[in-house]
Write a structure and sequence with these properties.
Largest sheet: 6 strands, mixed
Shape: rod-shaped
Radius of gyration: 34 Å
Number of helices: 9
Order of helices and strands: EEEEEHEEEEEEEHEHHHEHHHHE
Strand order of the largest sheet: 6-9-10-11-12-13
Strand content: 15-25%
């Protein structure tokens, strides 16, 4: 037997009635929406009641789902008459990970929106198709228990679930229940959003945009010692005139390093002491992107990640050269042009 108080019932015509809308006793002419048993109204017309007005089963036991069925019946009656509905917000996230392991999370969101409803048609005991003022249709699902019904097949713009499981709703008056269904943000959620894939593409674009602007947003790490705190003069930088000659196959890295360096000497570089100035990139970036292609941002990310980790610049340069198959001179040129490091 349920401990909940039943305040909604069906009249003899199957219309949901609130306890204060009917006559007292068996004159209420109501039946239980859950089990169909005859009900009597207690204190329905008593303004000085000591016990809350409610429906009581007449010569029949109250079953566990009687109170839940009563709330569902009331909610259906309200849905049939609603003229507006606040669509819940919908947000998606997408994550990209750089070769160095850094992750960027992009987001895309559709805000809440109050829409006008012109028609509501119930397809079964819990699901209704709402027609909006602009002609679009939304499936509305009334969730009275933790169980879910099957996925919808109608061509609708989305599906919204209205949560009726809150025990407080079992004794809610018509106005409270109507506000819960149409306006309450905590009660509504999207089960299916038709434009989810479009939002996922926007979120992915946002993540990639964060990646591409990462170099400009990252501050320089603190110096390792007092000698590194000296700001080195920025040299005049020019993109290579013949960039194709700078590419070195990974399979011949050792020999190419000796050839390009002309001596068995490591190409050294040092991190710049100030954040990069991206205002000069407009004319410079296209040349370097043409040289490194899709690996352009990977190489910049490798530099900034190493600098954030306070890694030795020369060691980072050598590791990046071996990882991507370019000569240290070519990568050092890029890092210098981007004002991340100097040679």
């Amino acid at each position: 037997m349920s401990n909940a108080t039943i305040v909604w019932a069906n009249d003899l015509n199957g219309v949901a009635r609130y306890i204060l809308e009917v006559q007292t006793g068996l004159d209420c002419n109501c039946v239980c929406p859950g089990c169909g048993a005859r009900l009597e109204a207690v204190n329905a017309q008593n303004p000085y009641w000591k016990k809350r007005p409610h429906f009581r089963h007449y010569q029949a036991p109250e079953l566990d789902d009687c109170a839940t069925s009563a709330v569902l019946t009331a909610a259906k009656e309200i849905v049939k008459s609603i003229t507006e509905l606040k669509l819940p917000s919908f947000e998606v996230t997408q994550e990209v990970e750089t070769p160095s392991g850094r992750k960027f999370t992009g987001k895309a969101k559709v805000a809440e929106e109050l829409v006008q409803v012109t028609a509501a048609e119930f397809m079964d005991s819990t699901d209704a198709i709402l027609t909006l003022a602009d002609g679009q249709k939304i499936r509305l699902r009334l969730v009275a228990t933790a169980r879910r019904s099957s996925d919808p097949t109608e061509p609708v713009m989305g599906e919204i679930a209205i949560d009726l499981t809150d025990p407080v709703l079992q004794t809610a008056d018509p106005q409270t229940l109507r506000e819960h269904i149409t306006l309450s943000g905590s009660a509504r959620r999207w089960c299916h959003f038709a434009d989810a894939q479009a939002l996922e593409r926007l979120a992915l674009a946002d993540a990639n945009a964060q990646w591409e602007t990462f170099v400009a947003r990252t501050p320089a790490p603190p110096p390792e010692n007092k000698f590194q705190s000296v700001v080195r003069p920025e040299p005049k930088l020019f993109p290579p005139s013949q960039p194709v000659k700078q590419h070195v196959p990974v399979s011949d890295m050792a020999g190419s390093l000796r050839s390009l360096n002309r001596r068995d000497k490591v190409v050294r570089c040092y991190w710049c002491a100030s954040p990069p100035d991206t205002s000069k990139w407009g004319a410079l970036i296209p040349t370097w992107r043409a040289m490194f292609g899709e690996q352009y941002y990977d190489l910049l990310d490798a530099a900034m990640t190493a600098r954030d980790a306070n890694q030795n610049a020369t060691e980072a340069l050598t590791a990046t050269a071996n990882a991507y198959g370019y000569s240290p001179q070519a990568i050092a040129g890029l890092w210098s042009a981007a004002q991340i490091a100097v040679r």
